[in-house]
User: What shape does this take?
Amino acid sequence: MFKKVPAALAAGLLTLVLTACGGGDAGAGGGSDRITLGFSQVGAESGWRTANTKSVQEAAKEAGIDLKFSDAQQKQENQIKAIRSFIQQKVDAIAFSPVVESGWDTVLKEVKDAGIPVILTDRAVDSADTSLYRTFIGSDFVIEGQKSGEWLVKEYEGKSGPVNIVELQGTTGSAPANDRKKGFGDAIAADPKFKIIASQTGDFTRAKGKEVMEAFLKAHKDIDVLFAHNDDMGLGAIEAIEGAGLKPGTDIKIITIDAVKDGMQALADGKINFIAECSPLLGPQLMDLVKKAVKGEQIPQRVLTEETTFTPEQAKAALPDRKY
Ligand code: GYE
Assistant: This one.
């Protein structure tokens, strides 16, 4: 285990700590100065998540970091338990992708008191006290929603309304669900012909996306557009739309977010019309940040992921090299 040396420690104390560690396995020059990182993942709800898990696991190996990986199965209580157990195990750093935005202050204070740096990965928390974590690495979900809405506005430029939209939201209370909804809503707000006639959570899964879309189709005969907060829910909805005898991408236009391979294939096939990309490949940057945080080095408060958007033509071109 890497022996932490908090930057704030006075020089005298520092000597003390180093002396105390002298007989241990982490002496300077010893071969076992490995960092241990506790990582609490949201779950395995989507293709995005699977690619993200793989990226984190591979990057940890590559960086020589010992990874304690815990899957929360989309439950906040499991994440809180995992984080407390990481504290007990005296890991050197904790990273996690918070399933929902709120309710983290207590456990994050416990981590802070234990002197363990925290790195938020992929999803944000709404804690007012930003000293509870060192940095947040991930996408700007509001912008992803905005790009999705802007595409729609252009697609219906000069056409008369109403344009009836149904929305499949991500996990209730999660940062990507809150922010994508907001970004999309803002982008279409100026033109009253755009109407969100139904909006419900599909929990970011294919199965739930299908189920909720079936209910939407039963309740509404006049759906023009589906906005799904991720590819997987969109793919589930495609099954529902086809099951109802309609043509996805034509009878109902579909916008999704992520751009995982299956989504990109459906886009290339014309079943999805537009995808805003969200990159899950956060592992290598996360490991860099972990190393710096453990050493007490300065790191930026926010690390943004770069991403683009795809039309069917662009999806066809990008698919052969798509990594996830
Ligand atoms: O879009 C979705 C996943 O938090 C950005 O979570 C992530 C989202 C992603 O389940 O597919």
Remarks:
- Residues 45-46, 48-49, 122-123, 176, 204, 230, 232, 257-258, 278 surround beta-D-fucofuranose (CB under 6 Å).
- The two ends are 33 Å apart (CA to CA).
- Residues 4-31 have pLDDT under 50 and may be disordered.
- Residues 5 and 14 are 7 Å apart (CA to CA).
